[in-house]
Amino acid sequence: MCTAFMLLLCLTGLPLVFGHELDVLLGDAIEAPELPANQANARATYDAILKSALTKNPGHVPQYMIWEPDEPMLPIIVTAPRADTPPDDTQSTTIDGRTAKALGAPPGKGSLKFILLKLHVDMFAGLPGKLFLGAMGVTFVAAIVSGVVVYLPFWKKVGLGRVRIKKSRRIAWLDGHNALGMLTLVWALLVGATGSINTLADLLLDAWRNDQLALMLAPYQGKPPVVATASIDEAIKTARNTAPSMIPSFVAFPGTRFSSPHHYTVFMRGDGILTTRMLRPVLIDAETGALTDSRELPWYLKLLLGSQPLHFGDFGGMPLKIFWAAFDVLTIVVLGSGLYLWLSRGNKNKAKPA
To answer: What does pLDDT average to over the chain?
Structure first.
């Protein structure tokens, strides 16, 4: 059963490997406009960037300020009517980090990229859909391991990757399936295992909130929510001083899932190829701007974040994207041939007389 769902994930994951290129193709990409030479090095304040997004979306409150690693001068501000508005009902605005001018909204609900992403992440079924796909991923990894065990005697007997094209069509399909399966073995195990880990993101985040974050916020327990008056610029400056070897990844505003009713939580990230997704939260009092606490994330969130670049293949530029896409296509062939062999298993003796 897992084959059909893995086929769905490979088919939806293939265009997502080229997410930015897909935006460009569909005309959804937002690019920074050219500025006169005397403004090329201009930098707007973070407070001005936030104000621009709120002016663009009156009646909204800020949820997140995000910097994509490949577009640091195009911060995305996520706003909504309430701080606890679900992600699918929020509004994102891309801001020019040099001028604080609103440039437009990234692709949202109803876009092709959104549909592909939802099918790939949870099949529009929320947490149950994520956990179901995670179970299918574990089953897929188990199927790969069992397939190798079954294939080993044949490998030792006739050689690795041999396809008996002079035999029946079904045997040729089976040999081709096995040969390509061995070729994609390591990649499929890697992507399948890391994908299964990623389906646990919501549960692991809740565990962190109830454990480490609760300890960090203990001094604020029972206090009413505050009105955020502290400067975002000062909060990010404090975060940089607290984690000087890291750079800002995103800011979670008070009342959101990644923060508390009393804090800006500045998530700092590593600056290396494989550490881009490794985060460290810095809690800043949203009323006074003072540092509250900062701790390394627990091992289970480090495992989750460390698995993400290995799953998405987005840490090596276009060459790695092409490599990931090529193995995705090969895995689609393996899954498709496996599904064909399973569906046609009852037909192999139909041509024989009763």
So the answer is: 90
DSSP-derived 3-state class of residue 261: coil
Same domain, 219 and 299: yes
Whether pLDDT at 189 is above 90: yes
Both 173 and 231 in one domain: the answer is no
Residues 187 and 321 occupy one common structural domain: yes
194 & 205 share domain: no
**What are the C-alpha distances in Å from 314 to residues 235, 265, 322?**
29, 25, 10
Find out whether 161 and 179 touch, Cβ atoms under 8 Å. yes
What pLDDT, on the 0 to 100 scale, is given for residue 182?
85
Q: What percent of the chain has pLDDT over 70?
A: 94
pLDDT tens per residue, range 6-48: 999 999 999 999 998 998 898 888 988 888 888 778 899 999 9
Please state the domain count of the chain.
2
Contact assessment for residue 149 and residue 156, using Cβ atoms and an 8 Å cutoff:
no
> Under 8 Å CB-to-CB from 88, ≥6 apart: which residues?
109
**DSSP-assigned states of every residue in 272-295:** STTTTT-EEEEEEETTT--EEEE-
CA distance 270 to 30: 25
β-sheet bridge partners, residue 248: 268
Is the pTM above the cut of 0.70? Answer: yes
Contact call for residues 13 and 329 (beta carbons, < 8 A)? no
Question: Does residue 195 share a domain with residue 221?
Answer: no
Tell me, what's the pLDDT at 351?
A: 46
Range of the domain at 336: 1-28+125-199+316-346
- Same domain, residue pair 6 and 137: yes
Residue 353 lies in a domain: no
Residue 36 lies in a domain: no
Residue 254 falls inside a structural domain = yes
Please say if the pLDDT value at position 158 is more than 70: no
